[in-house]
Amino acid sequence: MNRPAKSAGYVARTRPVVPPIYQSATFYLDDIAYKDIQGNGGLSEHWYSRFANPTVDAAAAEIAELEGAEAALMTASGMAAIATTLMTLLQGGRRVVSARQVYGDTRDLLVRDLPALGFDVTMVDAADLSEWRSAIAAAPTTIVYAETLSNPQLELTDLAAVAELAHQAGAKMVVDNTFATPYTVNPLRLGADIVVHSATKFLSGHSDVIAGAVVADRETVTEIQRRVITFGGCLDAHAAFLVWRGLQTFDVRMERAQATARALADRLRGNAEVVSVRYPGNGAMVAFTVRGGNDRALAVMRRLTVASEATSLGGVETLVSTPFNSSHFSLSAEELAAARIDAGMLRFSCGIENAEALIADVEQALATTSR
Ligand SMILES: *Cc1c(COP(=O)(O)O)cnc(C)c1O
């Protein structure tokens, strides 16, 4: 069988503009690799792709730069990024104080899985600083957890104030920046210690890959990398390539999607069929509540032809869902009310279609379902 020469010589005059997909599980060992394995746990050299892979590193470097961070690492999914980060930090303690308004599967991790493993989790209202203060003060706290923009209510947490409370208590602040994205905010600059991402969403931007990222200072990223190695949630090179490619148009996509989201929110505010509109002023997510509750929301969604009825967000195509029966299906009626997910709420992730066509589509769906 013909294999490429062992020396790097066969690529020396090849200088690709785009990172190659290193679809290789393993790499030739040499003295430099052995030295890194023995001295440093094999964290710096490329010798096995669960530890590190050049294509995966290329995607991580772009995300670190977007977040203004020293380092980043990629994971197999956003949930792998979140779970691996929390389990790493919980080796130094046992209590999490989290916003109540978080992504549905993050909520399951916090209220079901972490307590089953013996950890304490306290939940507070994301936007209520006094609740954060008393919960963090109530017992020794290891992790303070929030999303920059809560899902699906799009409420803002005062990240700087909560980070300060966390640090006073000796806790680390972890922020999920998937919804707001580094286009609108860099949580590390506001005091967060670690940022986690579902790179499945706006970062990659084409609804064609599942991926996650963890962003922090180098030492913290290395600690979490050790658990990506032992827990196994590494990203595949092919998926990393798609993330890297999507990132090349991140700013342009966000600029366009944000302009559309603003225009949609403005127009919906004037529509008599709409009870309330939630748009935080920037970003590409809009949530609004229609008259007539969940049945009406479902009817409106079914009439749309430009927007696609699908969960997830952050793609070039506008995606719409009703949280009660998709991302937050596991919540009871009381829990939905406590999380302020109103009956009749629709969540829009604006894509890059023609804004007028999208808005006209929503308006016709509202008009043709009104009694
Ligand atoms: C989608 C999402 C996740 C989970 O990411 P996956 O890539 O699907 O594992 C976590 N947090 C938020 C805010 C999300 O939207």
TrEMBL record:
GO terms for biological process: transsulfuration. The modification N6-(pyridoxal phosphate)lysine is found at K201. Keywords: Lyase, Pyridoxal phosphate. It is an enzyme of class 4 (lyase). InterPro entries: Cys/Met-Metab_PyrdxlP-dep_enz, Cys_met_metab_PP, PyrdxlP-dep_Trfase, PyrdxlP-dep_Trfase_major, PyrdxlP-dep_Trfase_small. Its EC number is 4.4.1.2. Pfam families: Cys_Met_Meta_PP. GO terms for molecular function: homocysteine desulfhydrase activity; methionine gamma-lyase activity; pyridoxal phosphate binding. The keyword Lyase applies. GO terms for cellular component: cytoplasm. Its cofactor is pyridoxal 5'-phosphate. Transmembrane segments: none annotated. It catalyses: L-methionine + H2O = methanethiol + 2-oxobutanoate + NH4(+); L-homocysteine + H2O = 2-oxobutanoate + hydrogen sulfide + NH4(+) + H(+). It comes from the Bacteria. Belongs to the trans-sulfuration enzymes family. This is homocysteine desulfhydrase. It comes from Kibdelosporangium aridum. The lineage of its organism: Bacteria, Bacillati, Actinomycetota, Actinomycetes, Pseudonocardiales.
